[in-house]
Amino acid sequence: MLTKELVFGLILLMQACGPLLAETPASKQPNSPGLLQRLAEKTREVKATVQVYGAPVLGFFDTYYEDHIQPVTDSYFQWASSVRSSVWEKIHSTIDNYMPLQAANPTDKPQQN
What is the Cα–Cα distance from 39 to 64, expressed in whole angstroms? Predict the structure, then answer.
């Protein structure tokens, strides 16, 4: 049933778009620039537009970041740094005080805490 509906919809779509494609006017410029030249011109226009509108938008987002996001993330960053350093110190002290590693060398005497 779904296949029949899909085929019927495609046939209707082809019938609707067929006349539109047939009515496409021919190019009236005999010496029109090539596709790559038109693409390059369009690219330059888009680049200029992005540069014109991009600077204020970038300024807005920079200000928004400084006002709203950075104060929140700075506190998390400071917290994470302090936690990381304390965890790192605990790991080092645990490894340094691990008895089987110290007893692995028979010439070393185990340290007593």
Answer: 35
